[in-house]
Design brief:
Length: 521
């Protein structure tokens, strides 16, 4: 069975994503995470381009990787100077990585119009730079920048550039679709054409400007490329790079090609979200394989079929990549999610029973009002237990008052007072702070904490507001989703109202009720 070498460039290409900026500590954490996943190469950055990448490579000298080889990235020498006089090449040697990847110009347009040198000098730059790095006992990959555009424009010269890298002693040639403008059949035909002309192993590096980065990378692999470069979550400049999560998933599940170790595939989703958190980069819910919605089923017909046979609507088993199946609760889903949720709570509920029908009718009414339980499992569990008379509230809310004040100096403050009853005791708490939802949350927990000390461990981690009927303007209903967490897990609750504070209040009450219910279990 063939093995595909995974070369990650998240720390270099991925860091070029708009809005993403890594500290040295961030880069070290990501490197160690990717190493634990069993990747073959991790490209750490360009030591000749900025002080931060230099510091990263210096820091990594004290870390021993278990699986991956660390690679430093740079360019060929500048025109008309010797390799040993080129600062960029010297920085690559000083990084002391076992592997070095350099890029050079393949498209004649870039040679004459961008770096403004001769075609012959460019060939010398490539060959001499590779040879210089090999003299310093480095494994060298040559990234043929803009290769496919160059090959389509001037195939004879593009071929000469990678032959120059081969003559210099490159260990591998990586073909780059830098502008992301090629089609899969073009990639496939060109790689096949090169196989008879290049003796070194080939790699593929694709960008996503047409939404084809993964397809183009797989086309390159099918045509004979043994290395694939990409980033986690498809991060990168412009429209991003080929997503290694999707590629690894497809290689193992469909193409039956080995890449990372089989026992590491189940860690794919965990690594993806770990990197997204450090990057402050949101993964779309519908991202293949690792997205939260990748194995989520909402339609009633789909859910009924899934219960009978998961193969009906899933192309792979979600646990393979560390994901899980979700049957969403909504007006479209029918009664089965209600029955299944009841089963998880050890409540026998027949989908044809009057109770199930009544709950389904009320659920549909709630969703008509704007509630969305598919993203708020905690509120749905409370909804079910209330309707089945299996839930006794921990407290009674008597009321609240919230105000916001803008002071003469331009600063803004908010305050909240809440009144509750716990075990026939009247409690009141007043809190001042920065925002109305913050003070409302703090006031509620202040009033309750002497009765329920575990609330000290609970915090709000996310707050989302969506306007449901925008044509109503300021009178529109809004849906508030609140994510809360404690030391053990997280949960989401929902509230809907024309008043955003009232909607927030409902979601906050559910959040606290769920926390107390969870602690009681």
């Amino acid at each position: 069975m063939s093995k595909i070498i995974i070369y990650d460039t998240t720390l270099r290409d991925g860091s070029q994503t708009e809005g993403v900026s890594y500290s040295v500590a961030d880069k070290v954490k990501i490197t160690l995470k990717l190493d634990g996943l069993g990747l073959h190469y991790i490209e750490g950055g360009w030591p000749g381009s900025n002080p931060k990448d230099k510091e990263f490579f210096e820091t990594m000298k004290s870390h021993k990787l278990k699986n991956a080889r660390l690679a430093a990235f740079g360019s060929t020498r500048r025109a008309n100077i010797k390799p040993e006089d080129d600062i960029n090449l010297r920085d690559l040697i000083a990084s002391q990585t076992p592997t070095v990847t350099i890029f050079g110009k393949t498209w004649d347009l870039h040679v004459t119009d961008i770096i403004k040198t001769t075609l012959d000098e460019n060939l010398k730059m490539i060959k001499e730079s590779v040879a210089f790095l090999k003299e310093h006992h480095r494994e060298v990959f040559y990234d043929a920048e803009h290769f496919f555009d160059g090959y389509k424009h001037n195939p004879a010269y593009a071929l000469k550039t990678i032959q120059a890298a081969q003559e210099g002693g490159a260990d591998g040639i990586v073909l780059c679709d830098t502008n992301g403008g090629s089609l899969p059949d073009e990639i496939s035909n060109i790689v096949k054409d090169l196989k008879s002309k290049i003796t070194k192993s080939l790699g593929i590096h694709t960008h996503n400007d047409q939404g084809l980065a993964v397809a183009n990378a797989l086309a390159g692999i099918n045509a004979g490329c043994l290395q694939v470069q990409g980033t986690f979550n498809g991060m990168g400049e412009r429209c991003g790079n080929a997503d290694l999560c999707t590629i690894i998933g497809i290689l193992h599940s469909k193409m039956k090609l080995k890449s990372i170790p089989d026992n590491k595939i189940k860690l794919l989703m965990d690594a993806s979200y770990y990197i997204s958190e450090i990057s402050n980069y949101t993964i779309p819910n519908n991202q293949p394989f690792i997205g939260h919605s990748a194995f989520a089923h909402k339609g009633g017909v789909h859910i009924d079929a899934m219960i009978k046979n998961a193969l009906a609507y899933e192309h792979v088993v979600p646990e393979m990549v560390g994901n899980r199946r979700r049957l969403l609760t909504s007006e479209l889903a029918g009664k089965m999610p209600i029955v299944l949720k009841a089963q998880k709570m050890n409540i026998p509920l027949d989908k044809n029973s009057p109770q199930a029908k009544e709950i389904m009718k009320e659920l549909q009414e709630k969703e008509y009002q704007g509630y969305q339980f598919e993203g708020a499992d905690a509120s749905f569990e409370l909804f079910m237990k209330r309707r089945l008379k299996l839930y006794q509230p921990f407290f009674k809310m008597e009321g609240f008052k919230v105000f916001t004040e803008r002071k003469p100096d331009g600063s803004v403050m908010a305050g909240a007072t809440v009144r509750i009853i716990v075990n026939n005791h009247n409690e009141m708490a007043t809190i001042e702070g920065h925002g109305p939802v913050e003070v409302l949350d703090q006031a509620m927990r202040t009033a309750l904490k002497k009765f329920f000390p575990s609330l000290v461990d609970m915090h709000l981690s996310d707050y989302k507001v969506r306007v449901l009927d925008a044509q109503e303007g300021t009178k529109a209903r809004v849906r508030v989703l609140i994510e809360s967490h404690d030391q053990h897990d997280s949960w989401t609750t929902v509230g809907v109202h024309e008043n955003v504070i009232e909607a927030s209040w409902d979601a906050l009450v559910d959040s606290i009720e769920y926390k107390l219910l969870k602690d009681k279990k």
